[in-house]
Amino acid sequence: MARILTGIQSSGLPHLGNLLGAIQPAIELSKNPQNESFLFIADLHSLTTLKNGTERELYVRSIASTWLAFGFDTDKNVFWRQSRVQEHAELSWYLSCFTPFPMLANATSFKDKSEKLADVNAGLFTYPVLMAADILLYNANIIPVGKDQKQHLEMAKDIASRFNNLAGEDILVLPEPLIDERMMTIPGIDGQKMSKSYNNYINIFLPEKELKNVLKKIVSDSTPLEEPKDPDTDITFKIYSLLASETETETMRQNYLNGGYGYGHAKQALLEIILEKYAEPRRLYNYYMENNDELEGILKTGEEKARIIARGTIEKVRRVLGFGA
Ligand code: ATP
Ligand code: MG
Fold first, then answer.
1. Any residues with CB less than 8 A from the CB of 94 and at least 6 apart, and which?
2. Which of 148, 189, 197 to mutate to test the pocket of ligand 1 (most atoms within 8 A of CB)?
3. Which of 43, 58, 288, 316 is a plausible cystine mate for 65, CB 3.0–4.6 Å?
4. How far is CA 195 from CA 38, 113, 191, in A?
5. Active site residues
6. pLDDT single digits (tens) 50-103
7. Residue 271 parent element (H or E)
8. pLDDT digits over 160-195, tens only?
9. Atom 16 (ligand 1): residue with closest C-alpha?
C-alpha cells in the first residue's frame, strides 16, 4: 500500500493552480483502494508569509472546504491541520540540524520568493526543512507535487538519508515525488506562476460577477480585435486549454489565428467553462463554508489519526538523538 501525502498552505484562498497542480491529482490518487492518502492544511507554513491570525482561520476553512468540495473521502484517509499536531514543528527542528546551509541557500523557490516578497524571514528560508518533517513524520512514499516543489522533495530525501546514516538504520522513509509532466505550472493572471502570495490567482469559488472581474484582469497584448493573435503566448488561452477538451481548445486556437476574435471573447469562454465544470464543487464549497462546526469535527477526527502516526516517528527519532522517547 502506498502512502501519499499532500499539503496546501493556508496563505490565501485556494486557486486554480492548487486545484490542477495538487488538489485534483491528490484526490484522484486517494480513490485507488491501494492507496492511503494524507492531506493536511499547512498552516505553519503559511506563517512565513501571513501574520494575521483571523485571515489564517478563514483560509484554513476555505482550503479544507475545497478538499471536501472536490470529494475527498475523510473516512478512508487522513485530513488535518498541521499546527494541531505539534510533532511537525518538533521534527523540523531536529531535521534542521541535518540540513546543510548551502542546500537551503540554493533553493530556487527561496530565491524567487525573496526577490518578490518584502518580508524575507528565516522561516521562509527553512521552509524546505519543515516540509521534509511533514513528509517524514508519516512515512509517506509518494508526494504528488507541482514542478515548483520538485527541488524541495530532493532536499527531503537528502535530509532523511543524512539522518538514517547517523542512526545506522532506515528510520525515515525516503519519499518519491510524483510529478505529472503534462501538468505545467499554471500561470496567474499576470503570467507569473499562479500563487496565493503573489496575489495573481483565480479563485474558482468567487460569485460569477467577481470571477468575471478577475478574469478581465488577465494580462494580454494590445492586438486589435480584428487581427490574428498568437494563442501560444497568450495567458487566457493557456489557462483555457488546461480546462477545456482538445476539441474546444482547437476551436479557440483557430479563433485566435483567424482574427475577429478578441481577448474579451476568450475571457468569456474561460468564465463559462469554469462555471460549468465546477458547478457542483462551487455548491459544496459554500455548504462547508457555512457549516463550520461540521468542518471542525472532520478536521478534529483527522488530527487524532495523524497524531498517533506522528508520535510513533518522533519517538524513534528522539531515541536515536538521545532525547529519550
Ligand atoms: P504560496 O504562494 O503561499 O507558496 P501557493 O499558491 O504556491 O502558495 P502552495 O500551498 O505553496 O500554494 O502549494 C500547494 C500545492 O499546489 C503544491 O503542490 C504546489 O506544487 C501546487 N501549486 C501551487 N501553485 C501552482 C501552480 N501555479 N501551478 C501548479 N501547481 C501549483
Ligand atoms: Mg508555494
1. 163, 317, 321
2. 148
3. 288
4. 22, 11, 11
5. 113, 193, 196
6. 999 999 999 999 999 999 999 999 999 999 999 999 999 999 999 999 999 999
7. helix 263-277
8. 999 999 999 999 999 998 887 766 789 999 999 999
9. 18
Ligand 1 first shell, C-beta below 6 A? 8-9, 11, 17-18, 21-22, 49, 145-146, 148-149, 185-186, 193-197
Residue 194 Cα: closest atom of ligand 1: 27
The beta strands (E) that lie in the chain are given as 2-9, 35-42, 78-81, 142-144, 176-178
Distances (CA, A) of 221 to 4, 227, 236, 305: 41, 12, 11, 51
Query: What pTM does this model have?
Result: 0.89
Name the grid cell of 10. 493556508
Q: Tell me the Ramachandran region of residue 265: left when phi exceeds 0, alpha when psi lies from -120 to 50, beta otherwise.
A: alpha
Q: Which three cell numbers stand for residue 82?
A: 498541521
Edge-to-edge strands, sheet with 78-81: 78-81, 35-42, 2-9, 142-144, 176-178
Q: Check if the beta carbon of residue 84 is closer than 8 Å to that of residue 168.
A: no
CA dist., res. 267 & res. 11, Å (int): 27
Neighbours of 142 (CB within 10 A): 18
Distance 254 CA to ligand 2 centre (A): 34
3-class secondary-structure state, position 307: helix
Which bound ligand lies closest to the C-alpha atom of 145?
Answer: 1
Q: Which of 49, 111, 185, 195 to mutate to test the pocket of ligand 1 (most atoms within 8 A of CB)?
A: 195
Instruction: Count the Cβ atoms, other than its own, within 10 Å of residue 323.
Output: 12
Rg, Å, the chain Cα set: 21
